[in-house]
Amino acid sequence: MGDTKYRSGTRVSEYLLEECIGRGTFGEVWRARHHVWDKEHVAIKLPTEPEYVRFLRQEGVMVHGLRHPNIVRVLGLDPYADVPYLVMELVRGPSLRQVLAEHPHGVAIDTAVTVLRGLLRAMTVAHEANIVHRDLKPGNVLLNLDGRPLAALTVDDVKVVDFGLGAGDADTVRSLVMQSASLERNEQSAALTGTLAYMAPELREGEGRPSARSDLYSIGVMLFELLTGDRPAGAELPSTIRAEVPPALDEVFRRLYARADRRYESATAVLADLDARLSGAGRLPPLPAGVGAGPNRPPPLPNAPLKPRATACPSCRTPLEPDDQFCTQCGRQVVERVRRCPSCGGFPARGDRYCIFCGSALLAPTE
Question: For the chain, which end, N or C, has fewer CB atoms within 10 Å of the first or last residue's CB respectively?
């Protein structure tokens, strides 16, 4: 992994360093084995910058109290040793960043939902303990596959790591995050590809403080990336890029990737909404066969009839616009059958003659 500050064979507490398995702006993570019990392996985080030692200590103290399958366990800590260290369980598998690199068009829908559930379960526990992660991104999510295929991933295999910024002074945290992101600049496009891409807009603009809702925004960005291989831009939904994404996930993403006051209020609320939607509420029938097949896709099929509906959402009573097919407040489907482009899976407005997403001609809906 290139030049490292530490070396294989170095003794740290009861462990001997074997291999550097991760490196960031402020520290390195090594796989290590116990000096007596050779088969006992752990991960050890070692700071490479003096100012990061206190964050190492904060992470150890916080995470030690967060006993949950979706949060990497802390096994040992000594920030005052000659070589300060944090000992954690060893997760035998890739980071979510590595998985996304291998799946440039997104992972299987079921896998995306599994990862989403794991992230939300982890954040439920952290937020209930008044701990905000502040730096959720694919590099801080590990998948404990231990040689199994990605399709075998379970919810308990999703592990959130790196709570080091979770309890820091807000100004110091912002400085560290900005410094980290600046070092991850993509010189080809000059676009930030690191931490800032997952930071809630109110934090980027300096208009708010880190909160549970800012963590949820980061999860929304990751959900879009899991489903499409890309990070979101503008108002597009995952299904505008990948037609087979169900409306349930579109709506969950929309409420995660929203302005702070319109975002879900908690990870628990996201899980409840996700369960309700995937259990059948508001789900659409499958797309016609051949959707997304490129130039050989079949000609447009008739759209399902749209029946007249109320002017307010039957669930939350939010006023509806004439073209709304889903409530913009609670996400409920407000038409019996949703009009959907049979070519790309997009959601055209009631009066559109051509799909605004792919340009295909649309048959007029029957009222």
Answer: C
Mean pLDDT value across residues 252-280: 92
The DSSP letter of residue 342 is T
Instruction: For residue 83, give every residue at least 6 positions away whose Cβ sits within 8 Å of its Cβ, in sequence order, or none.
Output: 6, 10, 12, 46
What are the angstrom distances between the C-alpha of 83 and each of 47, 134, 172? Answer: 8, 26, 23
> Of 172, 158, 134, 12, nearest to 85 (Cα)?
12
Q: Helix or strand or coil: residue 337? A: coil
Rounded CA separation 66/106 (Å): 30
Q: How high is the pLDDT of residue 347?
A: 67
C-alpha–C-alpha distance, residues 22 and 354, integer Å = 49
Catalytic residue, chosen from 82, 110, 135, 323, is 135
Per-residue pLDDT, 89? 94
Decide if 273 is catalytic: no
CB 32 within 8 A of CB 41: yes
The tokens describing 90, both together, are 């060893």
Q: What is the pLDDT of residue 50?
A: 81
Q: What is the rounded CA–CA span in Å between residue 136 and residue 163?
A: 9
pLDDT in tens, 14-57: 999 999 998 876 789 999 999 998 788 999 999 888 877 887 88
Q: How far is 242 from 268, CA to CA, in rounded Å? A: 27
How confident is the model over 63-87, as a mean pLDDT? 91
| Distance separating alpha carbons of residues 246 and 286, to the nearest angstrom | 8
Pairing of strands 185-186, 141-143: unpaired
**Residue position matching structure tokens 């997009």:** 346
Q: What pLDDT, on the 0 to 100 scale, is given for residue 207? A: 76
Q: Which are the contacts of 156, defined by CB distance < 8 A and separation ≥ 6? A: 69, 70, 118, 144
CB 252 within 8 A of CB 109: no
In this structure, is the dihedral angle defined by the CA atoms of residues 159, 162, 164 and 165, taken in order, positive or negative? negative
With H, G, I as helix, E, B as strand and everything else as coil, classify residue 172. Answer: helix
Region 102-111: mean pLDDT is: 96
Please check the confidence at residue 134 and state whether its pLDDT lies above 60.
Answer: yes
User: C-alpha angle with apex 138: 70 to 114, nearest 5 degrees?
Assistant: 50
